[in-house]
Amino acid sequence: MRTTIRVAIIDDHDLFVRGMELLLPEVSNGRATVVASTGDAAYAAGIVRNTVPDLVLVDLHMPPPGGLHAIDAVRRAAPRSPVIAMSGDDDPAVVLAALRTGASGFLPKSSTAADLLAPLLAAHQGWAVLPPRLLAALVEKDQRRSAPAATESLGPDDRTLLRLIANGSSTAEIATRLHVSERTVKRLTATLLRKLRVSSREAAAALAGSAGLL
């Protein structure tokens, strides 16, 4: 059974909207069609409430009340319709704001209709969609933000152990340095990983580097 997607577009760029209306059904062999559109973010809720689309595309850079307002309005009016934010640039801060507002993903507007088909199908099936480079940038940004908070509550002994781990010291080397048994080092390391909410030494070392502990 074919997956079909009814798409609504909230975007004030007429050329982009008309292109999607014409090309999306063509490249998808009728699997995806644009059922509604508006260039005014204030009408976003009304559009999706009347048409109940399977997916909503929202341009982040729209005149007031703006794309973020449109995302929030759509999520309230049609909570079962995933929202994909779109923009001509991929500023991680703007994309992160869209995700926090309720968007299920982000796609660049430089994408062709053919390039958009697979991500739209994935979003319709419940997946979050982000370009790989942007995903890496967001993860790095989040690590920089969360690293100080994760390490600031550590005591002197934990910080010493974390630095040794981050510097690549083995269990035996740490045991010698701390004058304890290897079994004790393993126990202390497991406790430290729990405090940092990470699952490996490598992740702990990354946090140490992000927090400036090296």
TrEMBL record:
One of its GO terms (molecular function) is DNA binding. It comes from Actinoplanes missouriensis (strain ATCC 14538 / DSM 43046 / CBS 188.64 / JCM 3121 / NBRC 102363 / NCIMB 12654 / NRRL B-3342 / UNCC 431). It comes from the Bacteria. Gene3D superfamilies: 3.40.50.2300. The modification 4-aspartylphosphate is found at D59. SMART domains: HTH_LUXR, REC. Residues 6-124 form the Response regulatory domain. Residues 147-212 form the HTH luxR-type domain. CDD domains: LuxR_C_like, REC_NarL-like. Pfam families: GerE, Response_reg. Keywords: DNA-binding, Phosphoprotein. One of its GO terms (biological process) is regulation of DNA-templated transcription. This is Putative two-component system response regulator.
